[in-house]
Specification:
Blueprint (H helix, E strand, L loop, with lengths): L24 H6 L20 H9 L21 H24 L8 H10 L3 H17 L4 H31 L9 H7 L1 H13 L5 H30 L3 H28 L5 H24 L8 H15 L3
Helix pairs in contact: 3-6, 3-10, 5-6, 5-8, 5-9, 6-10, 7-8, 8-9, 8-11, 9-10, 9-11, 9-12, 11-12
């Protein structure tokens, strides 16, 4: 009679055992979570010809941006759902503390009506722009080949939603002081028709139709978001401070803290991608394709900002510095 072999239980998950140490919370809840990368011919383990299977095979597995193991990617901040909520609960407490404090001081009543008109034109319509960032991050996260990349994009998506909420809150506040400026009424018209917004509207509408995961993550992270952050956050915040709107400057500063975290994981992603021969030239090609459209958006928007000399040139230079810093 043969002996029954007793298997020793593993001390950790098999994909984490090679590290020979106790895995961190981040590693346990973030790594190798996708199930649709086990069968390259049938990601969703149904008919290989099913629409979603064909979509992933073409746009995720078929992208020209290659790496032998995307699952090896790690977020340098190691953000997980629990810590994201702790961190951003504090951020929201800070932002809404600003709203409350400046409201108590009747901040909006001290604003120049001409600046209020600028806010109606160049600030409150930004909720449409931030929503397109949210949608693009959601798509890139959905079709990413590794769960650690998906998580980064989903937390980025949540940050974009928070930016939408901040803008909507201020829209309502401003409408109570400046009933004649069209707050809460004219934002869609500005977004769809005003020359200042048409560069960003075209940029975002085209970005939302990039299905290839490799191109989409490069365009969003290295071209689109830097353009938005340097023009619509940083330079708008400067214009606010120059026009007595300290609150706007502090709000955009808080949002730029989110953007800095997004840039850290993007830098880590680029460093990983550049390990594969051919990716450097590929990424540079995508940037060269999309950079002129982003520059046009920056020029149109910054050209309308009051009291920020050389805003467009500074914003474009900052986007290029970001890409050079990433090795591009």
């Amino acid at each position: 009679m043969s002996e029954i072999q007793v298997l020793k239980p593993q001390k950790t998950w098999s994909h984490l055992a090679v590290r020979r140490r106790k895995p961190s919370e981040y590693e346990i809840v973030s790594t190798n979570l996708h199930y649709n990368d086990r069968d390259p011919n049938s990601p969703y383990e149904l008919d290989p010809g099913m629409f979603m299977n064909e979509w992933y095979k073409k746009h995720t597995f078929g992208t020209a941006l290659k790496h032998p193991d995307w699952n090896a990617f790690r977020d340098p901040d190691e953000v997980v759902y629990r810590t994201y909520n702790l961190m951003q609960d504090g951020q929201e407490t800070y932002v809404f503390g600003l709203f409350d404090q400046f409201s108590e001081r009747e901040h909006d009543k001290a604003l120049d009506p001409r600046w209020a008109g600028t806010l109606a034109r160049l600030y409150t319509p930004a909720r449409y722009l931030f929503h397109t960032l949210q949608m693009t991050s959601a798509y890139v996260g959905q079709v990413s080949p590794a769960s650690t990349l998906t998580n980064c994009n989903y937390f980025q998506m949540a940050d974009s939603l928070r930016w939408v909420s901040h803008t909507a809150y201020r829209t309502r506040e401003l409408s109570r002081t400046f009933a004649d400026k069209g707050f809460g009424e004219d934002e869609r018209r500005y977004w769809e028709e005003d020359a200042a917004w048409q560069g960003f509207r075209e940029l975002m509408e085209r970005t939302l139709t990039v299905w290839d995961w490799g191109e989409a993550i490069v365009v969003l992270s290295l071209v689109v978001k830097p353009a938005v952050e340097e023009a619509v956050l940083r330079r708008l915040g400067e214009a606010g401070r120059h026009n007595g709107d300290t609150l706007l400057g502090l709000i955009t500063d808080a949002q730029l803290i989110d953007a800095a975290r997004h840039r850290r994981w993007t830098a880590a992603f680029v460093a990983m991608a550049l390990q594969t021969p051919g990716n450097l030239e590929l990424i540079k090609g995508w940037i060269a394709k999309w950079e002129p459209l982003a520059d046009q958006a920056i020029d149109a928007y910054c050209g309308a900002l009051p009291d920020v000399p050389n805003a467009a040139a500074a914003a474009k230079a900052a986007t290029r510095d970001l890409r050079r810093g990433a090795g591009l």
